[in-house]
Amino acid sequence: MYVKYGYYSNNYKGAVIPKEDFQRTEQEAETYIRYLTYLNGDIFADEAHTDPVIMDAVCAAAEAYYTATMEQQQGGNVKSENKDGMSVSFIVARKDGETVDEYVKRSMYQAVRVRLLPTGWLSRRAKVGV
After folding, report:
1. CA distance 85 to 87
2. Measuring CA to CA, how many Å separate 85 from each of 55, 80, 82, 89, 114?
Protein backbone atom coordinates (compact mmCIF):
# COMPACT_ATOMS: atom_id res chain seq x y z
CA MET A 1 0.00 0.00 0.00
CA TYR A 2 1.35 3.37 -1.03
CA VAL A 3 -0.99 5.34 1.24
CA LYS A 4 -1.84 4.38 4.81
CA TYR A 5 -5.13 5.21 6.51
CA GLY A 6 -3.32 7.63 8.86
CA TYR A 7 -2.25 9.79 5.90
CA TYR A 8 -5.75 9.63 4.43
CA SER A 9 -7.47 10.78 7.61
CA ASN A 10 -4.84 13.17 9.02
CA ASN A 11 -3.05 14.75 6.06
CA TYR A 12 -5.61 14.41 3.25
CA LYS A 13 -8.40 15.04 5.80
CA GLY A 14 -10.50 12.28 4.29
CA ALA A 15 -13.64 11.22 6.09
CA VAL A 16 -15.57 9.32 3.40
CA ILE A 17 -13.95 5.87 3.58
CA PRO A 18 -14.26 3.87 6.82
CA LYS A 19 -11.00 2.38 8.09
CA GLU A 20 -12.18 -1.19 7.45
CA ASP A 21 -12.78 -0.43 3.74
CA PHE A 22 -9.68 1.68 3.14
CA GLN A 23 -7.19 -1.04 2.16
CA ARG A 24 -9.48 -2.44 -0.56
CA THR A 25 -10.35 0.97 -2.00
CA GLU A 26 -6.74 2.17 -1.82
CA GLN A 27 -5.63 -0.90 -3.78
CA GLU A 28 -8.28 -0.25 -6.44
CA ALA A 29 -7.08 3.37 -6.68
CA GLU A 30 -3.43 2.29 -7.04
CA THR A 31 -4.34 -0.21 -9.75
CA TYR A 32 -6.26 2.40 -11.73
CA ILE A 33 -3.49 5.01 -11.40
CA ARG A 34 -0.91 2.43 -12.55
CA TYR A 35 -3.13 1.75 -15.57
CA LEU A 36 -3.26 5.46 -16.43
CA THR A 37 0.45 6.11 -15.97
CA TYR A 38 2.16 2.89 -17.11
CA LEU A 39 3.60 4.51 -20.27
CA ASN A 40 5.67 6.87 -18.14
CA GLY A 41 7.05 4.19 -15.78
CA ASP A 42 6.03 2.85 -12.39
CA ILE A 43 4.57 5.74 -10.43
CA PHE A 44 4.78 3.73 -7.19
CA ALA A 45 8.28 2.29 -7.74
CA ASP A 46 9.95 4.10 -4.85
CA GLU A 47 7.73 3.66 -1.80
CA ALA A 48 10.45 5.12 0.45
CA HIS A 49 10.06 8.45 -1.36
CA THR A 50 6.39 9.27 -1.09
CA ASP A 51 5.18 12.26 -3.07
CA PRO A 52 2.26 14.08 -1.40
CA VAL A 53 0.73 14.89 -4.81
CA ILE A 54 0.67 11.21 -5.74
CA MET A 55 -0.59 10.24 -2.29
CA ASP A 56 -3.41 12.80 -2.60
CA ALA A 57 -4.27 11.41 -6.05
CA VAL A 58 -4.53 7.91 -4.55
CA CYS A 59 -6.77 9.23 -1.76
CA ALA A 60 -9.00 11.10 -4.22
CA ALA A 61 -9.29 8.05 -6.49
CA ALA A 62 -10.05 5.83 -3.51
CA GLU A 63 -12.82 8.18 -2.38
CA ALA A 64 -14.25 8.31 -5.91
CA TYR A 65 -14.17 4.51 -6.12
CA TYR A 66 -15.78 4.08 -2.71
CA THR A 67 -18.49 6.68 -3.35
CA ALA A 68 -19.36 5.31 -6.80
CA THR A 69 -19.52 1.69 -5.65
CA MET A 70 -21.58 2.57 -2.56
CA GLU A 71 -24.01 4.55 -4.70
CA GLN A 72 -24.53 1.49 -6.90
CA GLN A 73 -24.91 -0.87 -3.94
CA GLN A 74 -27.57 1.38 -2.43
CA GLY A 75 -29.68 1.41 -5.58
CA GLY A 76 -28.43 4.69 -6.98
CA ASN A 77 -29.03 3.51 -10.51
CA VAL A 78 -32.81 4.00 -10.25
CA LYS A 79 -33.84 7.34 -11.74
CA SER A 80 -37.55 7.24 -11.02
CA GLU A 81 -40.13 4.75 -9.98
CA ASN A 82 -43.90 5.01 -9.71
CA LYS A 83 -45.95 2.35 -7.97
CA ASP A 84 -49.54 2.72 -6.80
CA GLY A 85 -49.34 6.50 -6.85
CA MET A 86 -46.07 6.57 -4.87
CA SER A 87 -43.31 8.24 -6.85
CA VAL A 88 -39.61 7.97 -5.99
CA SER A 89 -36.80 9.73 -7.87
CA PHE A 90 -33.04 9.64 -7.42
CA ILE A 91 -30.42 12.06 -8.62
CA VAL A 92 -27.66 10.02 -10.19
CA ALA A 93 -24.24 10.94 -11.50
CA ARG A 94 -24.25 8.05 -13.94
CA LYS A 95 -24.94 8.88 -17.56
CA ASP A 96 -27.72 7.10 -19.44
CA GLY A 97 -26.43 3.83 -20.88
CA GLU A 98 -23.22 3.96 -18.83
CA THR A 99 -22.26 0.70 -17.13
CA VAL A 100 -21.30 0.63 -13.47
CA ASP A 101 -17.68 -0.10 -14.37
CA GLU A 102 -17.56 2.84 -16.80
CA TYR A 103 -19.07 5.12 -14.16
CA VAL A 104 -16.54 4.04 -11.51
CA LYS A 105 -13.62 4.57 -13.92
CA ARG A 106 -14.94 7.97 -15.01
CA SER A 107 -15.32 9.07 -11.39
CA MET A 108 -11.79 7.94 -10.55
CA TYR A 109 -10.33 9.59 -13.66
CA GLN A 110 -11.94 12.93 -12.80
CA ALA A 111 -10.45 12.76 -9.30
CA VAL A 112 -6.96 11.78 -10.49
CA ARG A 113 -6.67 13.99 -13.56
CA VAL A 114 -6.48 17.36 -11.81
CA ARG A 115 -3.79 16.08 -9.47
CA LEU A 116 -1.53 14.12 -11.83
CA LEU A 117 -1.76 16.05 -15.10
CA PRO A 118 0.58 18.85 -13.90
CA THR A 119 3.15 16.30 -12.65
CA GLY A 120 3.82 14.80 -16.08
CA TRP A 121 2.72 11.32 -14.96
CA LEU A 122 -0.59 11.52 -16.76
CA SER A 123 -0.62 11.72 -20.52
CA ARG A 124 -3.10 14.25 -21.89
CA ARG A 125 -4.19 11.60 -24.39
CA ALA A 126 -5.22 9.08 -21.71
CA LYS A 127 -8.79 7.95 -22.20
CA VAL A 128 -11.20 6.51 -19.69
CA GLY A 129 -12.08 2.86 -20.23
CA VAL A 130 -9.53 2.19 -22.96
Report:
1. 6
2. 49, 13, 6, 13, 44
Q: Three-state SS for 86?
A: strand
What is the pTM (predicted TM-score) of this model?
0.79
Round to whole Å and give the CA distance between 58 and 66: 12
Cα 101 from chain centre:
11
Closest CA to 62 of 25, 33, 34: 25
Burial class (CB in 10 A: 0-12, 13-18, 19+), 22: buried
Say which residues have a Cβ less than 8 Å from residue 118's Cβ, sequence separation at least 6: none
Q: Which helix (H) or strand (E) holds 81?
A: strand 80-83
* 111: nearest Cα among 68, 76, 75: 68
Q: What is the pLDDT of residues 77-118, one digit of tens each?
A: 555 556 666 766 554 565 656 777 888 898 999 999 999 988
